[in-house]
Design brief:
5% strand; 18 helices; elongated
Length: 396
């Protein structure tokens, strides 16, 4: 009987032309518009190195290591350099920032800080790069401690060997190790701020897929459809109906999001990087989160189906707006002022998962987003199951 429920729910979803348009066709059309809007930007504008000031508040091995990492990304001889670095005092840095001679300045101290004048794409890039350097700092310091332990007593006892020279030797070893282990990001030539738009497009598609779950659940609710009334009085366990409907919804949703994914790759030629398996896993998890959101709204709300759909679409677009769909800097603004919002924002988690795969070689941030999306899905499904079990009707 469960297979019968699955096939029946699948037919209902596929035959809903309006639903197929908004979840299959609309994201593809939006992707085409994104491509038309941003392709000229990518081809006509060469990436300009960001003018960044560096203020060293503390002189120690940690700040020297961070500065060495920044200098690797700000080599003046490299035409693909991300930064043009300027060693400044705090007063000169503040003055240069005020006069817009630099985009930001970095305070190198125990807890590095990026100071900006206004939110922009360049300031967002600077903040993200500095975050990665800080994330890798524990690795670099472990390497430094090992190299310090390997140095002979003669090197320490020799009066001609100053601590600056010792620091320099350790930093050279750190940089060599960093290059060998790919600790630093991918090549700057791959840096593309418009990628965030396609990340949010996939996030929107994943969350839009919740409409499938919403409609499937509405079909078995007695207060939403005639079929739901028949389900309520039938001896067939509701659990089987729910499982069949949810699986059918998830399958159709996966077809839609992978259709969009392959369309952006093979037709729009969007480069998502080399870690395709990681992207596929993220799409599976993102779709599950979107489905759980639709099921959640369907079960807790007693409004009409159109109202529920409107709530889901509005919520999806709002979360995508906060994650940078209508402006890349919006995500940074939210992260800077109300970081908790993006911690629970599924669209932000999805886009951040894509971003971490593309720019970082450290998978800790990627898996943090995966686990957060799974946690959101589990909580929403748990509340939905509890609500369905408690539902009773005075009359059918």
């Amino acid at each position: 009987m469960r297979l019968h429920h699955f096939k029946y729910a699948l037919k209902i979803l596929i035959k809903n032309k309006m639903l197929i348009f908004w979840t299959f066709a609309f994201p593809i059309i939006l992707g085409i518009f994104f491509h038309m809007a941003f392709s000229n930007i990518e081809t006509s504008e060469k990436f300009q190195a960001i003018e960044v000031g560096v203020v060293t508040n503390e002189e120690n091995m940690m700040t020297k290591s961070m500065k060495a990492a920044l200098e690797m990304l700000g080599n003046e001889d490299d035409e693909n350099a991300i930064f043009h670095l300027h060693d400044l005092s705090l007063e000169n840095a503040e003055e240069s920032l005020k006069n817009k001679k630099i985009t930001a300045y970095i305070l190198l101290q125990e807890k590095p800080k990026v100071v900006i004048h206004s939110n922009s794409i360049e300031s967002t890039i600077t903040k993200q790069v500095m975050e990665q350097i800080v994330e890798n700092q524990s690795i670099l310091m472990n390497i430094a401690e090992e190299k310090m332990a390997e140095m002979s007593k003669e090197e320490f006892s020799n009066p001609e060997v100053t601590y600056d020279k010792i620091y320099q030797k350790i930093i050279e070893e750190i940089n060599l190790q960093r290059q060998n282990t790919n600790t630093i990001d991918k090549s700057p030539k791959k840096l593309s701020y418009t990628m965030i738009e396609f990340y949010t497009l996939l996030a929107m598609s994943a969350l839009y897929g919740g409409i499938f779950g919403l409609i499937s659940i509405n079909q078995i609710l007695a207060n939403m459809s005639s079929k739901g009334k028949r389900v309520a009085v039938s001896p067939e366990p509701k659990k089987k109906l729910v499982i069949g409907s949810v699986i059918a919804s998830y399958l159709v949703q996966l077809v839609g999001i992978f259709l969009l994914f392959f369309f952006t790759i093979f037709v729009l030629h969007v480069d998502y990087g080399e870690n395709i398996p990681g992207i596929v896993l993220l799409l599976f998890v993102s779709s599950l989160t979107g489905l759980s959101l639709g099921v959640f709204i369907a079960t807790i709300s007693k409004a009409s189906e159109n109202t529920k759909t409107g709530i889901l679409i509005s919520l999806t677009m709002f979360t995508c707006f906060l994650s940078g769909m209508m402006g890349v800097s919006m995500k940074y603004i939210v992260d800077s002022n109300i970081p908790f919002i993006n911690q629970i924002n599924p669209a932000s988690r999805i886009t951040d998962g894509f971003y971490s795969l593309y720019y970082n070689n450290d998978f800790s941030r990627y898996f943090e987003n995966i686990f957060s999306l799974l946690l959101i899905a589990i909580i929403l499904i748990g509340i939905s199951v509890h609500t369905l079990r408690r539902q009773q009707y005075d009359s059918i």
